[in-house]
Design brief:
single chain; mainly alpha; about 80% helix
């Protein structure tokens, strides 16, 4: 959606605030609310089937987005995409935790999470080229329809492993929803990790959503140029950072498990100056060059955080723990990040014109410091909260 933000906004005649709602709360609210009950189902049901159903739903609703003729039509389609995507990650994280032992989990989660970056690259590149060639409506159909085929392939080919044997205590901890939430709340390291990941996502989603509009308004780049460059940088740079963060966490974590949260904290600290320099450059080439390290360092947290979450809880709660993490991350990150930039851009625009968007992105950069603090703070509780039975 982000690469198509400007043509959609102009075609539908809406404000930056309205587009911020479309990319943020309209998706995040249903994505997060649907994630918890679907995760409870995944902790008991066939995770392969849940992933396939979700993939079919979000792909179909993506394709239907191209038929929208009014703003609320597109908002409805975004809700469907959010519900479909809610089915994937909690079930996938639970599967991966059964596939791999704890000492390899951060790397495995990083490999899975790098799919986000590859998808962003494909979305930017295909969306930018298709929008210029055929219009934004065709771009949605071209991206969405292949997912329906992939859903069938997923259903018939993905292996559903046997679940680990549950101890009596694990069975009791999964007995009710409130009890599961209490267990997670009592894990102080998990609380800080959730907040760190959520605040990192405020920055990540804000730049992911508004970068195309920023480059088009401020630097006069075409959507084809923007899609190609942002696709390559976000895809390859983000994938490299995701993999590097997971590998470093697994390697250094053998000596001290706190590296699983120190790595994300270091990543936030390193990405901050790169984002500021990206936003303030007057030359588009210089800006894009600074965005490369920003993407690499900014993606350090995915593998360590998702892998760590699976090790903090019993096997019977893995999908649920991932869903709670994603709930916090997306309510705060996706729900607030794009919307905040849209609101600030409209507010600053009266005085700054096209630089209103630049000013709003700079304001959001400050959240990186807050995110780094929570990741670093979680290290204090990590050893105490790591349960030997949660393997």
């Amino acid at each position: 959606l982000s690469i198509l933000l400007e043509p959609i906004r102009r075609d539908l005649g809406v404000s930056d605030t309205a587009m911020g709602f479309l990319t943020g709360p309209a998706f995040a609210l249903f994505y997060t609310c649907a994630g918890i009950p679907i995760a409870r189902w995944a902790d008991r049901g066939v995770r392969r089937d849940i992933i396939a159903i979700g993939l079919a739903l979000w792909s179909g609703m993506t394709a239907l987005s191209g038929l929208a003729t009014r703003y609320w039509h597109l908002a409805f389609a975004r809700v469907g995409v959010g519900v479909g995507e809610a089915a994937c990650s909690p079930a996938a994280h639970s599967l991966i935790a059964d596939y791999f032992p704890p000492e390899r989990r951060a790397t495995a989660m990083a490999i899975y999470s790098s799919g986000i970056n590859i998808g962003i690259m494909a979305g930017f590149v295909i969306g930018g080229w298709m929008s210029d060639a055929f219009g934004w409506r065709s771009a949605f159909s071209i991206v969405g329809l292949p997912g329906l085929v992939l859903a069938v392939i997923t259903r018939v080919s993905l292996r559903e492993p046997p679940r680990p044997a549950h101890s009596a205590s694990a069975r009791s901890e999964r007995s009710d929803f409130a009890g599961s939430l209490r267990l997670l709340w009592n894990l102080r390291a998990f609380r800080h990790v959730c907040l760190g990941a959520a605040l990192a996502s405020v920055v990540g989603y804000a730049f992911l959503t508004w970068n195309p509009a920023f480059l088009e308004r401020t630097h006069g780049m075409s959507r084809r140029e923007i899609g190609t460059w942002l696709g390559l940088i976000s895809g390859l740079g983000g994938a490299l950072g995701t993999l590097l963060g997971g590998v470093l966490a697994d390697h250094l974590g053998k000596r001290d498990p706190r590296w699983h949260v120190w790595i994300p904290s270091i990543g936030r600290a390193l990405s901050l100056p790169c984002l500021v320099l990206f936003t303030t450059q007057s030359d588009s080439t210089a800006a894009l060059l600074w965005f490369i390290p920003a993407q690499i360092f900014g993606a350090f947290w995915f593998g360590p955080v998702f892998g760590l979450t699976q090790g903090l809880v019993p096997p019977s709660m893995r999908a649920f723990a991932s869903a709670v993490l994603l709930f916090v991350v997306n309510v705060i990150g996706l729900g607030l990040g794009p919307q905040l930039v849209g609101l600030l851009s409209d507010a600053f625009g009266a005085r700054l014109g096209v630089d209103g968007l630049r000013a709003s992105l700079l304001c959001v950069c400050a959240v990186e410091i807050w995110a780094a603090f929570h990741f670093f703070r979680s290290a204090r509780w990590l050893v105490l909260d790591t349960s030997p039975r949660a393997t």
